[in-house]
Amino acid sequence: MPIEVENLSYTYMPESTQSVAALQGINLRIADGEFVGIMGRTGSGKSTLIQLLAGLLTPTRGRVLLDGRDIAAKDYDRSILRRTVGIVFQYPEYQLFETTVAKDVAFGLKHSGLNHVEVTSRVRKALEIMGFDYDKIHNQSPLALSGGEKRRVAIAGVLAVQPKILIFDEPVAGLDPQGRYSFMQLTARLHQGGTTIIMVSHNTDVLSEYTERLVVLEHGQIALEGLTKDVFMQLPTHDHLPVAMSTAQEIAYMLAARGMNLPQGIITYDDLLFALKAKLGGGEEAP
Prior knowledge:
By secondary structure, the protein is an alpha/beta fold. It is globular, with a radius of gyration of 21 Å. It has helices at residues 46-53, 78-84, 101-106, 116-129, 134-137, 147-159, 177-192, 204-210, 228-234, 247-257, 269-279; strands spanning 3-12, 20-30, 35-39, 61-66, 69-70, 85-88, 165-169, 196-200, 213-218, 221-227. It contains eleven helices and ten strands. The strands form two sheets. Strands 6-7-8-3-9-10 form a six-stranded mixed sheet, with helices on both faces. Strands 2-1-4-5 form a four-stranded antiparallel sheet, with helices on one face. The two termini are 34 Å apart. It has a domain at 246-287.
């Protein structure tokens, strides 16, 4: 189910003298199965945009279309939206509240119409996707788990609904390098399985390594949008945008400043590795 955004605008407290225009005239299309990253400075409108995509806010102007239907229309069946779009907020572990892990993961299925066997099957599958042994953990209190385990349980609760579209808001914030890698490998597997992924993040390395397309927001508008590599290549020419280059890209620029000129288009660590091997005579240059 593609998501289409048409002339989307949102203003907080529109009738107030302190109104804030968070988004202005956004047009965007996210196709089935894409992995799209959204980045920009704090206050650029990223969180507002994903809340509009998930139907948690109603546009001031414009429309969000899911499979061609306006999700804010009075006759739209909101249950379709709940089944189709799952959103994971930053630090989702703070939203755990049930007495057992299984009950917490099953919470989103309460009004699904599924019987007990079907619910249990979904809960088991979601927990296993997140790397848990269902039999060992399902009766434990989620509040007794470690921070990383809590986050994985919270995400399992979203996966249990089996959404076709997953929206993440700063999902790797607060994770150590191994935790970031493990989470992004999981996300990559979900994407490879056909799930559409929309991810807001300040982590340029995560976005450069995993996303297919990037949207850069600035002052509530789209400043840059396109294939991930193309957007990162444009960043150095947009000094007004407070968005960092990827680490691999910065290393390539620093090496160039010291006389080691490498091929254009180095964005990821693999790009950098191939280029260095070719330069130092240790391998063939990447195509």
